[in-house]
Design a protein that fits this description.
By secondary structure, the protein is α+β, with helices and mostly antiparallel strands. It has six helices and eight strands; from the N terminus they run H-H-H-E-E-H-E-E-E-H-E-E-E-H. It folds into two domains: 59 residues, Arc Repressor Mutant, subunit A; 140 residues, 2-Layer Sandwich (Beta-Lactamase), CATH 3.30.450. The chain is 43% helix and 20% strand. One of its GO terms (molecular function) is DNA binding.
């Protein structure tokens, strides 16, 4: 800790990181042990974070991440979208299909950026803000596959007709981006995804991942 940094802020951020890494929350005692500070300090940190809805405590007294963190996360979407647009534009033009960046929002996949090709006679209409379950559609399935970490996974997911009749999708997950879970993909009106699309989507996902690091 240098003279230019705030010890209290540092501890508060560490609390949020610890809570984000657990599904069942942490008690004051557990946080005190992990942070190496006394319980009084933890109580003060939690009280401050609760005032900003960044932390909540359940009936049993376990602290969990609060809904305020989700609100902060939504403010990041415009920045992520801007960083992803060049790769999405190139992908849409190369494939001749609608390209999209999708992020995890709770238990759903949320499209935050969409680019349509300029030279095709027709393409699938896909809009930012579109949501769907993570286990349906290529975008969500690519994210779930990345979570599973299967070594035999080709690195991208292919689907047909799961979100829209007659439409096929291909998507690859964002990898190595701290704090962001998502995928890059395309959706097209075909019975099957052409062979070259999967690897091209994988390349675009790598480009977006690099832009976000």
């Amino acid at each position: 800790m240098t003279a230019e940094t705030s010890q209290t802020l540092d501890r508060g951020l560490r609390v949020l990181k610890l809570l984000a890494d657990t599904d069942h929350g942490l008690t004051v005692t557990e946080l005190s042990t992990k942070l190496g500070v006394n319980r009084t300090v933890v109580y003060r940190l939690l009280a401050t974070l609760e005032q900003h809805a960044l932390v909540r405590r359940d009936i049993g007294g376990r602290a969990r991440v609060g809904l305020g963190v989700l609100q902060l996360g939504r403010q990041v979407h415009p920045l992520v979208r801007e960083a992803a647009l060049p790769a999405l534009r190139a992908l849409a033009e190369d494939i001749g299909a609608t390209a999209h960046l999708t992020l995890v929002d709770g238990t759903e996949a949320l499209a935050v950026a969409v680019v349509e090709p300029t030279w095709t006679d027709y393409h699938v209409a896909y809009r930012p803000g579109f949501r769907h379950p993570l286990d349906r559609g290529a975008a969500g399935r690519a994210i779930l596959a990345a979570r599973a970490g299967n070594p035999d996974d080709p690195g991208y997911a292919l689907t047909h007709g799961e979100l829209e009749a007659g439409a096929s999708g291909a998507a690859a997950p964002l990898l190595g981006v701290t704090g962001i879970e998502g995928s890059v993909g395309v959706v097209m009106l075909t019975d099957a995804v052409p062979e070259q699309v999967g690897p091209r989507v994988l390349e675009a996902a790598r480009e977006v991942s690099e832009a976000l690091r």
